[in-house]
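Replying to the earlier thread about multi-chain prediction with a worked example.

Input:
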Amino acid sequence: MALHVHKYGGTSVGTADKIQSVAQKLVDEKNKTGNDLVVVVSAMSGETNRMTDLAKQMQTAPSAKQMDVLLSTGEQVTISLLCMALEDLGQSAVSYTGSQVKIITDDSHTKARIEDIHTDKINADLATGNIVVVAGFQGITSEGAITTLGRGGSDTTAVALAAALKADECRIYTDVDGVYTTDPRVEPKARKLNKITFEEMLEMASLGSKILQIRSVEFAGKYNVPLRVLSTFVDGEGTLITYEDEEMEKALISGIAFNRDEAKVTLSGVPDMPGVASAILKPISEANIEIDMIVQNIAEDKTTDFTFTVHRNDYQKTMHILQNICTELGAKKVDGDDKIVKVSIVGVGMRSHAGIASQMFATLADEGINIRMISTSEIKISVVVDEKYLELAVRSLHESFGLSQE
Amino acid sequence: MALHVHKYGGTSVGTADKIQSVAQKLVDEKNKTGNDLVVVVSAMSGETNRMTDLAKQMQTAPSAKQMDVLLSTGEQVTISLLCMALEDLGQSAVSYTGSQVKIITDDSHTKARIEDIHTDKINADLATGNIVVVAGFQGITSEGAITTLGRGGSDTTAVALAAALKADECRIYTDVDGVYTTDPRVEPKARKLNKITFEEMLEMASLGSKILQIRSVEFAGKYNVPLRVLSTFVDGEGTLITYEDEEMEKALISGIAFNRDEAKVTLSGVPDMPGVASAILKPISEANIEIDMIVQNIAEDKTTDFTFTVHRNDYQKTMHILQNICTELGAKKVDGDDKIVKVSIVGVGMRSHAGIASQMFATLADEGINIRMISTSEIKISVVVDEKYLELAVRSLHESFGLSQE
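Result:
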């Protein structure tokens, strides 16, 4: 007998019927496995938008503190309905809001971080045969203010609860049946992975495979909580996210991620002196613009070229700021391109296998795809290419690294 | 400078626009009077029904405990929206759920009773110039379970908060502009009362003038909280519910109440012996049927007639039980009538004025209205008459006791 934490998102509990299906799944699972079950649920899909619309009618920029009071009601509705559905099936159940569990967070309203979770009451309820249903996405400060964890926060609640309860597995039920080698809409031959490491999943998630919230994967890795992504609607084993094992090391590359939301800007002919990177990036970050890749070319003639990527929405603003910096620093010129994409290969296999980068570059060169920017980390290589090459790049890399094969 | 508790019901906060109007009223009031304001709000009208419908889809008889978790979200939505609207007008505001205030109740889910209210945090917020917005209708047990106070519970929250905070006045804003001498739909000459005593209001409310929840009036009387009923939508002073004063004693009668929801049953020829009343009423109450008026006639030939009224919905069930009792006790027969109404005159003036009852009976006799049953208390006289006489009885009594005059 094990302890599992399940998490069901907004679409999985979006209607009365769906909540009843989830209840049936949980009862079947409990009867079949005898496992103790803790279930984390999100607000019914559509509710958060409905409430946000109401808030916007009240205040142009609704107070973060009151948004938390408002939005946290969404999950509270779901926990009560799910408990009713469970009881209707003869299964005893107990519901908890974040405040009732005591999921203690800091006071960063609308994006709070979990600091502590009390588990005594939940453990007592499990011991007497209950399914415990917990409102995701929400917590409470040590002063008693209601907080929320931000988008995808229910994943974080599930993983944090699993860690605190020392659960054997944390299952994230969603509308996809697992993590794929790449987006099947771009490469129909994409294959579902049975396993992936936390680190790979982090790189895949942050690069645009939006299945799990990054923070929840970090959390799961940090506390070594085996995490499984699987479908609410289709039976299957999903994808297990765990620590590296021997089987995994055999694979060179686990997946191809991509991101269409970036734009690239370059400041050329910058006088090469200490502090220049900071002089360029400080005004950007002060404007609340997030920077992703940064590349600085080798200096020639005592000048250097400085290139980085930002979100496409911030492109015009960034170009404007850079024009001012260009003048201040006496640089040559500012260039930019918002018709680019980032394509990345991700895999822990890279650590122990040489030649991955050259295989990647050769594959792209064979297809006539010009690489505009390169950035690497221990388990990923990212390139920026023209937007029009996205599909071609993803498919050729998917083929080249043997990801389509079973 | 005084401390006032205001309560706005579901129709008063039923839309975004209405919440903004309430915010504007509160800010105007605070600016004009400098009073400290605590505001109790209900769920937006329609929300409770929406949630109850969802619950019924989950469970035929939804668990009371989970209903409380579900329904308490309604007021939580309103407190956040009202705080946003207040902040948008530049007024600092703080929101509290029942659990955050610590409105401690017993664990009778869906009809909990308030046991204690912590006021330290609210007092601190008032001291720094905030308007404090509290979710009505809800509390928390000492073990941390969410509870609700039952229908009209927001009135109770407001009065209990006013008592705990030692407020100078508790104002219940509703969709009527005060308490009338009788229902204006029956007697268009009905007049709004400027003042009424707690006891009179209790008799009026329990007799069918459904403006305030009885429990909140009892509470206000017990803790001597001046209570004012007034309209959210129309300016005016409303009706002040308070303790008896000299002005009030001059009036004989304050109002005419009536109730169309009752039915009358009679068991005749019951052997007159000790314990017979209990033998009749015990099976009725065991069937969860509430009894209102009870009249036992003087015994003749060692038998007695026993008459009482029940809710019209329980009429058939009561008749059925009485048939069995009739056989058991060897009584003569069972009669019943569900085409009756109860009409009552209410007034503290009765205490010091003789002849009120005979004036009432004479008035009805003059109109040819036959009295079927009579019951009296210190400040009210109720009669049961045929249903068809309701309007005639109310209007002739309203005229006879001078209630139409200014």
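The domain at 3-175 of chain A is CATH 3.40.1160.10 (Carbamate kinase).

Feel free to reuse this layout for your own posts.
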